[in-house]
Specification:
Distance between the termini: 28 Å
Strand content: 25-35%
CATH superfamily: START domain
Shape: globular
Number of domains: 1
Structural class: alpha+beta
Oligomer: single chain
Number of strands: 8
Number of helices: 4
Radius of gyration: 15 Å
CATH class: Alpha Beta
CATH architecture: 2-Layer Sandwich
Length: 174
């Protein structure tokens, strides 16, 4: 398993850090991070609202497994930084240009270390979907298959204390 995210302390919280080199210019990746139809290909929920600092965002599950919730845009500097509240987490996306494309860093600041393996596997899978989308692949599978194997890798890498919180009941297969 490659490109595993890492876990680091962030004050009284924890932060998952992922970095992906993408063979696309920042402007192309930025559209995939902010345009609803492109976000739908890789982000686990649908996002509605304006990308403006202080604006309210609404997150809805496309499979209607959980109720909608709200967050706030904390930073928006196209095409370099996007940060928003996502439930109790803060998601920050940083995009920099590099030779042959761009580097995307995704930071997920968590309030509980125990969900790091769960969320790490989820973000890992989302970033894989993003890379496939940017490469032009059409992937209409829901972002769930393969999660269990990724989760096991994150438990091994981050330790059992990062796996105290499992998959929410509403997201478990019936």
């Amino acid at each position: 398993m490659t490109d595993l995210g890492t876990l680091e302390p962030a004050g009284d919280r924890w932060r998952l850090r992922f970095s992906r080199d993408l063979a696309h210019p920042p402007e192309r990746v930025w559209r995939a991070l902010t345009e609803p139809e492109q976000l739908a290909a890789w982000f686990p929920q649908r996002i509605t609202g304006d990308w403006a600092v202080g604006a309210t965002l609404t997150f809805t599950d496309p499979l209607d497994r959980a109720p909608a919730f709200h967050g706030t845009v904390l930073a928006y500097t196209p095409p370099a930084v996007l940060e928003f509240e996502w439930g109790t987490d803060v998601i920050r996306l940083e995009l920099t240009e590099r030779a042959g494309g761009s580097t995307l860093v995704l930071l997920d600041t968590l309030d509980e270390r125990g969900k790091a393996a769960r969320d790490g596997a989820g973000w890992h899978q989302c970033l894989d979907l993003l890379a496939r989308q940017l490469a032009g692949a059409v992937d209409d599978r829901p972002p769930g298959p393969g999660w269990a194997a990724l989760h096991a890798g994150y438990v091994a890498a981050l330790g059992p204390e990062a796996a105290a919180i499992g998959v929410p009941e509403e997201y478990r297969p019936s």
